[in-house]
Amino acid sequence: MKKGKVFSGVQPSGALTIGNYIGALRNFVGLQDEFDCYYCIVDLHAITVPQIPKNLRKRTLDVLALYIASGIDPEKSTLFIQSHVPAHSELSWVLSTITYMGQLNRMTQYKEKAKKSEENLNAGLFTYPVLMASDILLYQADFVPVGDDQKQHLELARDLAERFNNRYSETFKVPEPLISEFGARIMSLQNPESKMSKSDDDENAYILLLDDSDTINRKIKRAVTDSIGEIRYCDEQPGLKNLLNIYSVFSNEDVESLVKKYDGIGYGKFKEDLSEVVIEGLKPIQEKYLQLTNSKDYLEDVYKKGAEKAAYVSGKTLRKVYKKIGFIPK
User: Fold this and answer.
1) Which of 7, 9, 174, 195 has the fewest C-beta atoms lying within 10 Å of its C-beta?
2) CA 239/CA 193 separation, integer angstroms
3) Catalytic residue positions?
4) What is the share, in percent, of the chain residues with pLDDT greater than 90?
């Protein structure tokens, strides 16, 4: 039976956090046996904010290495760099001609980014959801793993697929969201009302996948809890709830067991044990990452082979689109 397709991408805009690992990479690993997976490093999206070229190149390879170090197998999944497949930009232009300005104006992330960087309010920041829709629709993806903050962008992709299909006949699959109920949204260690982000001004708010043990210890020790002093899993204790989610993922113990385990024990011991669990959980990823970053030829082979396959699959979709809208074939 033919496998369904999954598409997802990660920006190389900075070092990845345990939030990226829990919410994305870890789930990607679990999907690759069940689906035909296309995992992209979306460097075109990254340039909507200013980048230092040599840093962007390094981070792009870093994300590829972390994909593989986290357990994504290039023999099972297609790993590639977005800018290596021109069809992404080409389809984006076509879809932009059927995207309404009002839809883009309503995008929550655009509004938030516009407030943060008024001096860099470029057209790319406004239209990048169209490029994101192109990323997904090119591969006729059945499912897209998304967090709550990306649901709106997937809805746009679905709208554009349906609009194009209605106007020109059936062309694109309309993708469905694939949402992990538990652990998909890891929050800031300093402000548990906000998602953990590598762009946070406070470095104590996030744990990077490549942080050393001393740094992880320090950040968890400083993580916000509350004055209640009891280990409970509830919305009234959002900081502690977030730490329990992290503990559960890295220890493979369910939250209920952890609450019982630390009943009557203070936050100090809990944080100490959590640090140990996170450090041990990240160790194999960090070791594999170091090995991979010292094997540039291997990484180059992976992204070139991935781009070849992605170009073949996306090219079929793009040729169909071009024919339907009236372009003369090459």
Assistant:
1) 174
2) 8
3) 113, 195, 198
4) 74
DSSP per position, 238-281:
HHHHHHHHHHHHHHT--HHHHHHHTTT--HHHHHHHHHHHHHHH
For the record, the structure tokens of 2 come out as: 């033919």
Instruction: List the chain domain ranges.
Output: 5-179+296-325, 203-290
What fold is seen in the domain 203-290? Tyrosyl-Transfer RNA Synthetase (1.10.240)
Which residue in the block uniquely carries the two structure tokens 């070849």? 308
Q: What architecture does CATH give domain 5-179+296-325? A: 3-Layer(aba) Sandwich (3.40)
What is the Cα–Cα distance from 40 to 38, expressed in whole angstroms? 6
- Residue matched to tokens 């010292």: 294
The string of pLDDT tens digits covering residues 146-197 is 876 678 889 999 999 999 999 999 999 999 998 765 456 899 999 999 989 8
List of residues 6+ apart from 146 with CB closer than 8 A = 153, 154, 177, 178, 179
Q: What is the DSSP letter of 126?
A: H
pLDDT of residue 330: 86
* Sign of the dihedral through C-alpha 91, 94, 97, 100: negative
Structural tokens at position 18: 């345990």
76-134, pLDDT tens digit by residue?
Answer: 999 999 999 999 999 999 999 999 999 988 887 777 776 766 667 888 888 999 999 99
Q: Which helix (H) or strand (E) holds 36?
A: strand 36-41
**176-178 and 78-81 as β-strands: parallel, antiparallel, unpaired?**
unpaired
